[in-house]
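Researcher: Next sequence.
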Amino acid sequence: MTALASHLKRRRLAFQLALLFSFAFNFAQAQSDVLFDAYRDQFRGSGWTLGIGGHWLSPEPAELPALLTIVDEGNSIDTLHLGQWQHQGSFGLRLGVGYWYVAKRPILWDRISIQLEGGKHRAESVFRGAVADSSGALVSDTLTDISAAGVLSELTLRLHRAIELKPDFFLECQMGLGWDAEWGGEFSRTGPEDSFVPRTAPSRHRVALELGLGLGVRTRAGRFLRVVAQTDALQLQPLSNDGGGRIDRYEGAFRATHLTLQWDILRDKPDVSCAGSNLGSETMPLFEPKMQRKMKKRRRG
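Model: Next structure:
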């Protein structure tokens, strides 16, 4: 049953991805080339992007009943623990810097960016209930799982597609492939571990497919302000037990969501002089040699 549910989730995700790109493609012709200066009339078509926002790690679900039984040699059933898991995530500041490039001939995407973002998160799961002691009797006890990253770094390659709503205002769709790494921090399980299924420490590295949706405005030539919401749609490595973009943390499953205010800056295009003053020691003649000879003859005459 679990395998079937995971398969259905993956099929639903594939349908959502196809729908997203179909939506972007249908509006491709409505995109204005002036919005990002795709023809490089004023700007080089690349620049820096800076971001600040929030990072949420939320449990899915927040509570879950727990029951673990075994069959002993006499075919009688013994209960190892019986109770309730309660999972709690966290909120943290998120900062980022990146570089973006405007496509001259947009098809499914009109911009490509690579961004490095950082923050912190913490996941805590607490079991409260009855746990079997050494004699087999059930007594009240607590087991606590803690997964806290000292620093969370996220390196993501993103494809962007803008759908112009009106001049200078646009809706943005995103798809990205990200590598997340957790540095330092605490990974621990404390309590009556013998009465629970052994769990390995959570993975400190993940690769995930990310989706995002936002709104943007061109504040002035070459400057853009965007508000973007992002979440992991499919965790590729390691595969989570529940599928999708959930992050496994011992007994709990969590989803990472980001809301970011992004400030984009296109690089100015250098001025071009007819005399070629911007080309170093070499100069660019204003007229062709043949035309120069004709002009010299006219002056002599």
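Model: The CA atoms of residues 112 and 159 lie 5 Å apart. The two ends are 98 Å apart (CA to CA).
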